[in-house]
Amino acid sequence: QSVLTQPPSASGTPGQSVIISCSGSSSDIGTNAVHWYQQFPGTAPKLLIYSNSERPSGVPDRFSGSKSGTSASLAISGLQSEDEAQYYCATWDERLTGSWVFGGGTKLTVL
Amino acid sequence: QVHLQESGPGVVKPSQTLSLTCTVSGDSITGGGYFWSWIRQPAGRGLQWIGRIYSRGGTTNYNPSLKSRATISMDTSTNQFSLELTSVTAADTAVYYCARDFIDSRTYWDYFDSWGQGALVTVS
Fold it and tell me: Which residue of B37, B52, B111 is in closest CB contact with A35?
């Protein structure tokens, strides 16, 4: 069971917008920045959003992130078929000696 | 452009030690403000962080859930860092990724900005 909670699936049609949520607690999201990773089958995860809302170079501005309190969200606008992938949120958990924690992942399907 | 590549045995027997190496090219593992991490992913499941080592000084952090079975070390002469996981069971079967944990000097938040392609390790 993951420390961060994500919906297991999300879907939308091309051109639509979709939001993926990530819920945590005061010791993780409530204290630290949230980062998002995109993973296609058989490949390594790729950094999509860092520090809650920043986009690495090369990531389309259709992808945006936000954080409020102990929750974060990834928004994808103008859905494209190539956005179909698994999405993971991650943050640092301050409990015990500290540890990176991930959400369980959300499989985005573009219908 | 940094590149990371995992290497090691693809099969490990139960109760033995899993050993993997990550070769880093395009950057020095002792340069800059980085951690170097190991992350794993069982088939069809999510990501689990194993631990990390700091580029300057070699301080390590580990996932408490691994109950001290993991050890991460660095070899500056070969620009590699390594993972040893002892007393493995079938539950340790996974794709193992090495990743650079980049520390943003503006915010001091860190995140995984570069990943290796992953190495499948089967415990059997």
Answer: B111
